Amino acid sequence: MYKLVLIRHGESTWNLENRFTGWVDVDLTPTGVAQAQQAGRTLKAHGYDFDVAYTSVLKRAIWTLWHTLDQMDRTWLPVVHQWRLNERHYGGLQGLNKAETAKQYGDEQVLIWRRSYDTPPPPLAADAPLSQRNDIRYAKLKPEEIPLTECLKDTVARVLPVWNDSIAPAIKSGKRVVIAAHGNSIRALVKYLSNIGDDEIVGVNIPNGTPLVYELDADLKPIKPYYYLEEKKA
User: Which residues are catalytic?
Assistant: First the structure.
């Protein structure tokens, strides 16, 4: 049996401000830092250890991983940074307040953009201030690989190659893996691993900073439903 741990980043500044974030690189709040630290203490208390860590190229996930590993005395572990684990790209919604956007476009339309599986928000212009087309961290990618908007279906298609090409082989080789990523990139992995339907997955919420555990068989199929680790009380 293999175990895989997934952690959504701690609360970010734009989570707190109720803004669409996507690929915009924002900080953790003090609460987010505390959530990440608690994740590390919880994993250590439950006896977890890791050989390799994966994260995105966005600092809210990277710093979540740092704080988690720091609490486990494992800051020296190798870390793979992968743009494919980035959050879903929210296109023209990035940076906008969710409540104000709902007032402008209507609750129903914003709900479709946020929660439908295959309807993306309006795209950003390639030269928009919050576009990532000129961001140095994506300089080696083809322009078409850097999204201007995404739906969850697009995010699943983006995430699965790194699972198939890197993460799954690492697990099968016996390495204990932890992934610190984002609500929608983790949702993409959960959809794939648990074989959740398109309509059902949009209702799955991933809490900030709480370790999600999969127990997997030799074919990396779940032995039982995933579960969240609870803090151990002294």
Answer: 9, 87
4-45 per-position pLDDT tens digit: 999 999 999 999 999 999 999 999 999 999 999 999 999 999
Nearest residue to 59 (alpha-carbon basis) of 212, 189, 182, 187: 182
Angstrom CA distances, 124 to 39, 131, 133, 146, stand at 35, 7, 10, 11
Task: Give the pairing type, strands 52-55 and 79-81.
Answer: parallel
- Least Cα distance to 144 among 152, 195, 157 occurs for 157
From CA 152, how far away is CA 87, in angstroms rounded?
10
Structure tokens at 24: 């915009």
Q: Please list, in sequence order, all residues whose beta carbon lies within 8 angstroms of the beta carbon of residue 39, skipping any fewer than 6 positions away.
A: 7, 10, 64, 67, 68, 71, 209, 210, 211
The H or E element spanning position 13 is helix 13-16
Q: Are 7 and 207 in contact (CB under 8 A)?
A: no
pLDDT tens-place string over residues 184-213? 999 999 999 999 999 999 889 999 999 999
Q: Give bridge partners of residue 7 from the DSSP assignment.
A: 180
Instruction: Report helix angle 152-162 to 183-194, nearest 10.
Output: 70
Q: Are 229 and 211 in contact (CB under 8 A)?
A: yes
